[in-house]
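Notes to self, Glycosyltransferase:
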Amino acid sequence: MHRFAEESYRQETMQPVNVICIKWGQKYGADYVNTLYSMVSRNLSRPYRFVCFTDDPEGIRDEVEVKPIPEVGFADFDERKPWTFGHGWLKLTVFAEPLYDLQGPTLFLDLDIVIVGSLDEFFEPEGEFLVIKEWDKSDATGNTSVFRFNIGAHVDALEHLKEDPVGARKNVRNEQEYITQYVDRQGKLKYWPAEWCRSFKRHCLRPFPLSFFQQPRIPEGAKVIIFHGRPHPDDAIAGRSGKWYRKVLPTTWIKEYWR
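result:
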């Protein structure tokens, strides 16, 4: 029985998975996609496809599968109405069914993360929708910088938004509030272990006044460092905080991982 369990686990971990990202507009260039691919290639041991959905494939490395941002049969998205560009709403297009020829377990990664540990474990927990628990929210809201789902499993979230785009967004500020609260109402929401995904600003920066003398650290157990707002990874390397009241010393370890 023990040998059977080991063989079953080995076969499961050899099944291909998807790692996807999305890039639109001018906020991030192809270098962010290329760096993300490089980090994934060093930190995921099982077979995978790496797919970037984008409106501008220029400069993206050949190893990345590049596909247009999916059309979802919702004019606001397909015609790129202004509100869909803000607050991450276009990320919801990855819930389209079909999603080109992709199938099965899929890990979504934001472009501006820094991977500092193995990604293998992100495919191990059971669950229909796994996401980061948003650090400053007491409700169900998740942070969608890193989430896992099965292709086609949440097309109903798109349909709900399509049927009543104003009402569906009435009590939410952004895409991550919408999708995580939606799947939570269905009883499908689960969170990653808290230590896996840590905020650069909340968990890496030293408290005042130590931030003036010690560079940010990698929290114990962290696998992915999340950069939300400013600074971005390149800012942190250079010691730019993006805010006058937040001191960020040049963070040399980011160069080791963000490449």
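- The two ends are 43 Å apart (CA to CA).
- The chain has two domains: 2-191, 197-257.
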